[in-house]
Design goal:
The chain is an alpha+beta fold. 42% of the residues lie in helices and 20% in strands. The chain has helices spanning 10-14, 18-28, 42-48, 58-65, 80-88, 101-105, 120-130; strands at residues 2-8, 31-38, 70-77, 114-116. Bound molecules: adenosine-3',5'-cyclic-monophosphate.
Length: 133
């Protein structure tokens, strides 16, 4: 069984969409293995988004991701990393396909509701950040 990290970002919490989003994953057949609500600090944001620090959009991304609580979730299932990425859709909600979470519920490339690990290496790294052993 594979595991992936999902973050329900500040806009998902503020728009009362956590149940809608988690429900999609559960109805698909993915198991919630671990879950916690937390505030992401600027320090934690720089660790989680290490690949993006230095990009032009990073300062606004950090303001957004630290603005209010997120829900961190470990999902478990067969090929869960790829399955969840397909369900989440393209980064920009305007371009994301209908039927995906972002395609149905977001109109932004920053406030796009969900983060999901993009590879087995990222999943391992990101799960360790939010659920250290
Ligand atoms: P996420 O999948 O969490 O990975 C990096 C995040 O940076 C992304 O979702 C968006 O929230 C944000 N992001 C990516 N590209 C852009 C962009 N071009 N402009 C603004 N925010 C972006």
């Amino acid at each position: 069984m594979e595991r992936t990290l999902v973050l329900l970002k500040p806009d998902a919490v503020e728009r009362f969409l956590c149940g809608e989003i988690l429900g999609r994953f559960e109805r698909k057949g993915l198991r919630i293995a671990q879950m916690r609500m937390l505030n992401i600090t600027p320090e934690l944001a720089k660790i989680h988004y290490a690949d993006h620090v230095g990009k032009s959009f990073y300062p606004n991304l950090e303001v957004y991701i630290t603005s209010s609580p997120v829900v961190a979730v470990v999902l478990e299932g067969e090929e869960v990393i790829a399955v969840v990425r397909r369900m989440v859709g393209a980064t920009n909600g305007i371009e994301a396909e209908p039927g995906t979470i972002r395609g149905d519920l977001s109109m932004s490339n920053r406030t796009n509701l969900v983060h999901a690990s993009d590879s087995p290496e990222s999943a391992k790294r990101e799960i360790n950040i939010f659920f250290p052993k």
